[in-house]
Amino acid sequence: MDLGINGKQAFICASSQGLGLACASALAAEGVNITLNGRYADKLQETVQMLRQQFPRCDINAIAADLTRPDGREKILSLLPQVDILVTNNAGPAPGALEEWDEIALLAAMRANFVPAVQLIRAWLPGMRTRGFGRIINITSAMVKSPHYMMGLSTSARTALTAMCKAISREVAADNVTINNLLPERIDTPRQEFMLQRLMAQEGLDRATARARNTQNIAAKRYGLPEEFGAACAFLASRQAGFISGQNLQLDGGSYDGLI
Questions:
Q1: What is the pLDDT of residues 204-228, one digit of tens each?
Q2: CB within 8 A of 241, min separation 6: which ones?
Q3: Cβ atoms within 10 A of the Cβ of 163, count?
């Protein structure tokens, strides 16, 4: 299927590895010109070189900037004044408990997982509307719909973004601008490795046992593949997905218990 986005310009937040990189790779495979983002210039350049070798027909660049800082966002916007596809993403807060979630922690979560996405949308959305094409895809979490206690800080900030984008989506759909969310659960990325190492340390498990335990409560009985996640992102960015907006797509191996 030709997704109809060859030659479009995409910006993918936090994309030197993990889910962001999976989305960047899938978009580049469709001929999209991509700009990666991360805080560490050396790591970004390694990723850029890898993708340029894989997708030589695409224009692939990177902007090293901290999305959580206003000056970081200003740098991005000054170097990339318009995009057609925006994929928002950022690492979430560490797991914790209520006694740790003071005002400083709450504000830090919002600065990481709510404010940057909204501010980039504010900056690039008007141009998308004027040109009659835009795709905004937020990487949030399956826990937006199924909160877990230890991830309450991350879940709350991502749910705020979900609500904000649902409100915006109705205003821009007539301009062929869509806003959707990808809700991952146990995709095999460095974030899952971090969580795995945490489990191993807490319970004295070896890696194989910890991975087996983590996959037992997934209906598919395995971790999701980054490539599967990236493919979903590419489709939501496509011309064919123009009638899909304001939605939450769960990528969880069929694990969600709810009906809607």
A1: 888 888 888 888 989 999 999 999 9
A2: 135, 178, 180, 235
A3: 12
Does 203 score more than 90 pLDDT? no
Give 37's strand partners. Answer: 63
Residues 6+ apart with CB under 8 A from 36: 12, 15, 16, 20, 21, 24, 44, 47, 48, 51, 60, 61, 62, 63
Q: Which contiguous run of DSSP H or E holds residue 182?
A: strand 177-184
156-172: pLDDT as tens digits: 999 999 999 999 999 99
pLDDT at 98 exceeding the cut of 90: yes
Fold of 9-185+225-251: Rossmann fold (3.40.50)
Q: For residue 135, give the 3-state DSSP assignment.
A: strand
Q: Answer whether residue 121 shows pLDDT above 90.
A: yes
85-111: burial string, b at 16+ Cβ within 10 Å, e else:
bbbbbbebbebbeeeeeeeeeeeebbe
Q: Facing residues of 139 across strands? A: 182
- What does the H/E/C string look like for 32-82? CEEEEEECCHHHHHHHHHHHHHHCCCCCEEEEECCCCCHHHHHHHHHHCCC
